[in-house]
Design goal:
The chain has 67 residues and is an alpha+beta fold. Helices cover 22% and strands 31% of the residues. The protein has two helices and three strands. Strands 2-1-3 form a three-stranded antiparallel sheet, covered by helices on one side. The N and C termini lie close together (10 Å).
Length: 67
């Protein structure tokens, strides 16, 4: 079985010092025990309904298999 991490460029984060603008990515989630990337995305969205409620675009997620 495989393990994937999903990240996105969407959304905003803040630095502890608010005088600095931070442009970075956010980790959306990590999914384990799946056969492939597609199964991982489906599992991620089923187990984390807040992702779509927060209006993230799952089609824009970047995924990496974690070894």
């Amino acid at each position: 079985m495989k393990k994937y991490i999903f990240i996105t460029k969407e959304g905003n984060t803040r630095a502890p010092n608010e005088n600095y603008e931070v442009n970075n990515m956010q980790v959306i989630g990590i999914v384990e025990n799946v056969e492939n990337e597609n199964a991982a995305l489906i599992k991620l969205l089923k187990e984390n309904l807040w992702i779509l409620d927060a209006e993230f675009n799952a089609a824009e997620f970047i995924s990496y298999e974690i070894l």
